[in-house]
UniProtKB/TrEMBL annotation:
InterPro entries: DUF6588
Signal sequence annotation: 1-27
Entry keywords, A to Z: Signal
Organism encoding this protein: Rufibacter quisquiliarum
Protein name in the entry: Uncharacterized protein
Length: 367
């Protein structure tokens, strides 16, 4: 049972090794113990710890769509390879256990109830004691301790990087389409796939005064990205002290456990740019909306207490014990520069927002 669910949760988020500094294995095992107490509490605790990561991932996916305020001409194209990095705000580095609405099956010890999120300090949080409980036919409550541990430490980092490749093609009427696609790919127990589409349209042509200003462009942009990833290597099994049945102790009984994660991110921007020789500067206003859904699929063992004498522990099976959704939206101001040399360009951008994002990349093509 002390297999780490959190480690698998966080491994499912990146496709390219986003998390190089995970919390200690002991801390990850402790999160596996959350499920030993109560499904509702497990969802609250894991969401509070991982919520900033789900938001940061979505805002990273919303970056890097454009590198100027001008749409490419008909038939022109480029291939871009870039990386985005989202910075977590200070308020996303801790959470308060006392505000989660936990049941009395989770008891927090110590003077402080403040615990680190994934982006928090690499220090243990408050001590938690997990109980299983039942009531006798006479209404007497029986409670037994099943685990005691500190809430997980943070990673000690507050930045989430993400690399992306993109193809952009110019269409008619000062319009440009951008496509992102990674087919569903499997490696060992991991699998992931990504797709996205964006559209940029020049509005300078519709404003007579601006249409006469050379080298100055204004466009509107909208884009959507969908990332699905999964980890199928979870092996959460019951402990002997929980008195599992012969079937529950048999090899393969809990096969099929895994973590599935879907991130949906869409963004809209109004961006203007000015080109001087080979350098283009651009700036604009950006809206970013994200949702990351995390689900534990399969059958999992949870210790319970029988309501009849001798009130022993037994293992109750539950399916999909974790199902949390992490949502966020924000407005930001972004600005960037592009250096274009023949068929090669290099560019960088920064978005000022609650979850600020930096981006840098290179492009190849006829644009």
């Amino acid at each position: 049972m002390r297999k780490s669910l959190l480690k698998k949760v966080l491994w499912a988020l990146p496709v390219v090794g986003l998390f190089l500094a995970l919390p200690s294995a002991q801390a990850q095992d402790e999160v596996g113990d959350f499920i030993r107490a109560n499904q509702s509490d497990a969802n609250k605790l894991i969401k509070a710890y991982a919520d900033p990561v789900g938001k940061a991932l979505g805002h990273s996916l919303n970056g890097g769509w454009f590198n100027s305020g001008k749409a490419m001409g008909l038939g022109r194209f480029d291939i871009r390879i870039f990386g985005t990095a989202t910075f977590a705000p200070d308020e996303a580095k801790t959470f308060d256990l006392a505000t989660l609405g936990l049941s009395d099956q989770v008891v927090v010890s110590g003077k402080s109830t403040t615990a680190p999120t994934f982006f928090g300090r690499d220090e243990d949080g408050p001590e938690l004691t997990i109980y299983a409980k039942t009531r006798t036919p006479a209404g007497v409550e029986i409670k037994q301790e099943v685990a005691s541990f500190n809430s997980p430490p943070g990673s000690g980092i507050d930045i989430l990087p993400f690399p992306i490749a993109q193809l952009s093609v110019g269409l008619i009427k000062d319009t440009e389409i951008a496509v992102r696609f990674v087919p569903n790919t499997k490696f060992d127990d991991f699998e992931a796939g990504l797709w996205g589409v964006g559209l940029k349209h020049g509005i300078k042509q519709w404003i007579p005064v601006l249409s006469k200003v050379p080298g100055f462009d204004i466009t509107v942009f909208g884009g959507y990205t969908n990332l699905k990833s999964a980890y199928r290597g979870i092996e959460v099994t019951p402990e002997a002290a929980d008195n599992p049945s012969a079937a529950q102790s048999a090899p393969g009984y809990y096969d099929g456990q895994g973590i599935e994660l879907t991130t949906k991110a869409w963004t809209a921007s109004l961006v203007a740019s000015k080109t001087l020789s080979v350098i283009t500067g651009y700036a604009g206003v950006k809206y970013s909306n994200v949702q990351t859904d995390l689900t534990a699929v399969g059958r999992y063992p949870v210790p319970s207490i029988r309501s009849t004498p001798p009130y022993q522990r037994y293992v109750e099976d539950i399916t999909e014990p974790i199902d949390v959704s992490m949502k966020d939206s924000q407005f930001g101001l972004n600005a960037g520069l592009r250096l274009k040399l023949a068929f090669f360009s290099i560019y960088g951008e920064y978005t000022f927002a609650k979850y600020s994002t930096a981006m840098a990349g290179i492009g190849f093509g006829w644009n």
